[in-house]
Amino acid sequence: MVNIFNKKIVTWDFFKVISILFLVEFVRGAFLITFLPLYAADVLGFSVSVVGVAVTAHYFADTAVKSIFGYLLDRFPFRFIVQVGLFLSFLGLLFIPYIHQSWLLIIASTVFGIGISPVWIVCLSKVNEDNRAAQMGFLYTFWLVGLGLGPVVLNFFMDKSYRLSLWILIGLWAIGWLLSLGIRNDKVEKVTMVPVKKQMKMFLERLKTMRTLLPGMVLQTTAAGMLVPILPTFAASHLGLTHSQYSYILIVGGVCAVIGLVPMGRLSDAWGWKWFLVIGFGMLAFGLFFLTFQFALYSIFILAGVLGLSYSAVLPAWNALLSHHIPQGQEGLGWGIFSSVEGIGVIIGPVLGGWIADRFSESLTVQLSALFLGGIALFYCFLPLSLLQRKEI
User: Fold this and answer.
1) Between 102-114 and 48-64, two packed helices, what is the crossing angle to 10 degrees?
2) Domain boundary among 156, 191, 226
3) What total of structural domains would you count in the chain?
4) What is the pLDDT of residues 63-90, one digit of tens each?
5) Which region, left, alpha or beta, applies to residue 213 given φ > 0 means left and ψ of -120 to 50 means alpha?
6) Domain of 361?
């Protein structure tokens, strides 16, 4: 770590903000993926549809306030804006024990989603152009590890007490707020404003050239979003897993994904990313579909490993495909479009998954998620490679 700091790859200021990001994503992942679905069903007696709406409201709030916080960060110090955002989210968590009506749960989840945006904006603004690749690697590593580790760790406490689990999340969020006191009190550098009309024209032109990516972008985030409100209850009611066993399943899937990322990335670079997308999405669909059948515990562990390795095949290939469609000099616009389009699935998925689970069954939700992923695999399997190439405007 000392050598890294000396080379200015990870400065102390940058390390502080990505540490805050780690805690924020740890709590967010633990709350949305583990705590909220189980607490809402077991303690509050709410339907899965309510959970789906609450998750969607959280992500919608996070997305909607990004531009507002961006505007404020141009005019006020980083430290002040991050602290305000984290405090608002803190109030959302503190309100959870006092909720007895579904609409209050949705409001609390929405308020909790508000304060996360400024942390991300500040983290991105701290990235040094001279070490952009290395620092972005650290940034996304802290984000992924926090988001994945949160649900795993919290499940071990969920077996003991819901109240204890919630206070652990509140305590970790408070630690993140305290760390924000150490953020360097600077501002975002002024940028040249592009007229709204020109921005819309550029947006539509770039969106037209990316049309072959749209099915995969929307369907995969929709498929993933459908699973968020139902996975913990599906694991408990359908698979018969305890919270701790569910954590071990998540650990197996996560470890397989991490182990497979580097070799899968190298192989997709060498052999071409198209077939890694086809096989990866196909195996994700296969693993999810067969998860709806009641197998022995060891079989569930095997399927978790298959899902993890499949994800490791998809992620590098998918990122390579997206980056291939980012024109030089328009990186901000390109990634902004991708985030906006993928956000459609993030907003739709939880509501759709919760509604299907309430109206039919949780197993059907998982099967339809698998169907969407299988559809992506077939789409890219039969789509000519020439149609996936970037077309310059």
Assistant:
1) 30
2) 191
3) 2
4) 777 767 767 776 777 788 888 889 999 9
5) alpha
6) 194-393
Integer CA distances (angstroms), 74 to 57, 99, 179, 186, 245, in order: 26, 36, 22, 10, 46
Q: How far apart are CA 201 and CA 178, in angstroms?
A: 43
257 and 150 in a single domain? The answer is no
Query: Which of these ranges, 48-57, 117-126, 144-153, has the smallest mean pLDDT?
Result: 117-126
Residue 23 has pLDDT above 90, yes or no: yes
As given in the structure block, the two tokens for residue 210 are: 């990316």
Q: What is the CATH number of the domain that holds 267?
A: 1.20.1250.20
Domain-ending residue, one of 191, 212, 243: 191
Rg of the chain over Cα atoms, rounded to whole angstroms, equals 21
CA distance linking residue 377 with residue 230, whole number of Å: 24
Dihedral of CA atoms 306, 307, 312, 318 in degrees, nearest 10, equals 130
Q: What integer best gives the mean pLDDT of the chain?
A: 80
Q: Beta-carbon neighbour count of residue 131 at 10 Å?
A: 17
According to the model, what pLDDT value does residue 352 have? 92
In what helix (H) or strand (E) does residue 11 lie, and over which residues does it extend? none
* Interatomic CA distance for residues 145 and 168, integer angstroms: 18
Q: Are residues 143 and 291 in the same domain?
A: no
Residues 15 and 29 in one domain: yes
Q: What is the pLDDT of residues 341-362, one digit of tens each?
A: 777 788 888 999 999 998 898 9
